[in-house]
Specification:
Elements (H helix, E strand, L loop, with lengths): L5 H7 L12 E6 L1 H19 L4 E7 L3 H8 L6 E11 L8 E5 L10 E9 L3 H12 L4 E10 L11 E6 L4 E2 L15 E4 L1 H14 L16
Parallel strand pairs: 2-3, 2-5, 5-6, 6-7
Antiparallel strand pairs: 1-9, 3-4, 8-9
Helix pairs in contact: 2-3
Bound molecules: inosinic acid and magnesium ion.
Length: about 220
Amino acid sequence: MVGYPAAAAAAWGFGGGFPVRGADIVDVLLSAADLAAGIDRLAAAVRQEFGPRPLTVVGVLTGGLVLVSDLIRRLEGPVQVSMVWASSYRGTATAPGTLEIRLDLLPDLAGQEVLLVDDIFDTGRTLAALVRELRRRGAARVRSLVLLRKAGRAEVAMQPDFVGFDIPDAFVVGYGLDFDGAWRHLPYLAALDSADIAAARAGQRSHDAEPAPQADPAGLSRA
Ligand code: IMP
Ligand code: MG
């Protein structure tokens, strides 16, 4: 199916037909109110861990953008904010993803207390690589926080220190998360129809040399 998700179309008063290659929203997993309550809990847990000491929040673009913005406004005490960029692509169901990371906006982290903030812990490769890199830069303490953790997908030994919500293994969009660049701006979190994801992949396969993954509903487009 191609078109603006019906739930979003209703919420925003559109008639549908937004011109992006897309997939239908099958389920609103977390409403805006659910998300707000989860971020309240996360902010309280972070302050309990770090106390009143100055904290450097390092957000991961692009998916972590909305979460960082909401989280920092709930953190009392001194906070500085910086962003890094990470993106991973999976060529086939069996090949490991290629992770690309850009860290050039980071301040000097030597001796800093750092909170790394990303949208979702899927395989965990992004978070594990970034934690390693922040430690290498001399941070005194590095903790990691994600809004979402997908069930049964971890490929690394580490787990995030703070998790907002555990969700089932579905492809989700909204609140910063995208499908092919679309739907980051939805104020809620929605699951996409896996048949539509598969169809979008089949379309991609016709002009890509590599076969699209069949058994990896979260592997199409990440940033
Ligand atoms: P990981 O390295 O496999 O943990 O991938 C994490 C990144 O993949 C996240 O920061 C997201 O950008 C992206 N990602 C993983 N699952 C989804 C999803 O369901 N929807 C949108 N993006 C996702
Ligand atoms: Mg990301």
